[in-house]
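Hi L., both proteins are below.
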Amino acid sequence: MTTFASEGHSPSHTALSLRDLRTTWTWLYDGTHAVELRALTPHGPRIGRFTREDAFIRAVRSAQANPAVTGIYATLNPIAADAVWTAPWNTLTRSPRAATDRDIVARRWLLIDIDPVRPPHTNATAVERRAAARVGQRLVEGLRALGWPDPGIATSGNGIHVLYRLDWPNTVATTTQVRRILSLLAQRFNTPDATVDESVYNAARITKVYGTTPRKGPATPDRPWWPARILRIPRHWMTVTADHVTALDLWATPSLNALPSRNGSVSRPRLFATSDGLD
């Protein structure tokens, strides 16, 4: 049984993690299509499209050192080479145009973003982060019981990210399918303390750049700035297939609304809700 902890890094460890930053680049850059980087500030984002790792890392370092930057994000899916872009490449600018869903070549990632329930515009407490990690734990084990492959797992800072590899076209049907997956996961795994974000279904979705430290709200002793870090990488990446998605019908069909056990019989969902997996 897989376990993971949301407390792998203390809030004092807010320096840039070059290892996680380089891993983020390898996850997002396919060798051909640009990755869009966005550094958010109160006066609007600085945006850039990157095809070079050294330029990407340099831009992230500069943004992280800027106290006005509240968060650093990048597009999950590859951007078409012919997508409109008039600003310089491989640098952050005040470009008025960010990538849209139509600019995305294909779907490469399914992001499951688990957020702790907390007051708006605040950082999470350690207790709230653990609540998100517990939901993530149950969700990963539940999907594995349906035959899903192992995901990458990260902390977004305040919450948990679960990332599955995809090799899907960027179509309306795919968007509908991703939206349905997130809805089913939310219905099954949401708790009063942490929920699956159902809004992250669109193709041009951005995600935290792992290795950075978001500064979403004022840092206080009980609600500090938590770093976004990679917690777990599968030994072998495998993509989610149509068969994996079909298996989710077990959760959508009331008569089959239990998890299959390893011997093929039906087991109680409660068996997958007892593993905390936290230090």
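That was the first. Here is the second:
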Amino acid sequence: MPAAEARQQSSRVMAELAVPTGNSYWRSLELEWVGRDQEIVAGPKIKSCLRRPLSHPEQSGTSKYLDISTHELKVMQNYNLIAITPFQYPDARLVIALDKAGVLGVLDPGFDTEKAKQALSKLIERIPCQFGVVDRGSIETSLVPLDAVIILPGPDYSVACWSPRPVLAQVTSLNEALRAEASGAFGLIAKGNESGGRVGMDTAFILLQQILANTKLPVWVQGGIGSHTAAACIVGGARGVVIDSQLVLAKESQLPSEIKKVVALMDGSETAVIGGYRV
């Protein structure tokens, strides 16, 4: 992409994604900043704030993702912003709010089977469109709707058992990305070492470049995502971005108030990587 075109696209995307972060946590998914405790509400622009054509000018109109099935493409083509419930907490209310805002909300069910099933049942009842589920092994495959988007946290990628649901694989290295592609994943989430939980050695932007140069799959970026870095990811070739901990202080988040109070005082410097996990 020519430099002038890249700058123009970056400016457009950043203007459309102008959501002040405030200590790196998004208090609202609305495009205009209206207060710390603003609810996540439906915003028509957010559905297209990160959208770009699947075909790139430099490819003479040829789609980059030729091997994507029609079903999976239909399910995922409008989701450039993916939001996962933070801290492995099965927060159905937050996912419902994200869906109303035009975002692909993803339930991270954690490891409590009963709470996970209750949250999933609520989502099936309340959300008419697609939502996502992180595979933690706490929800039986048969309970998850066939049009749900599955996120595999890795490093093992059992894609086949979730068929025909579209599967996104969280990867922390190029080697993992290649294994996930070979397993039949629909797309990849390049999880940089700025993220919480399991991480690798590379930052999100470095990992994105490595993956785009070696795979044909669409890539979403996770790690250090804010309004400006989201725009940079799109200009750099990503299909979209993933947020999670940025939603901790959202009004719809059902995390305990004690956790929210502690997180509100943090600036990110408190984390460290121990044994391949950022904690």
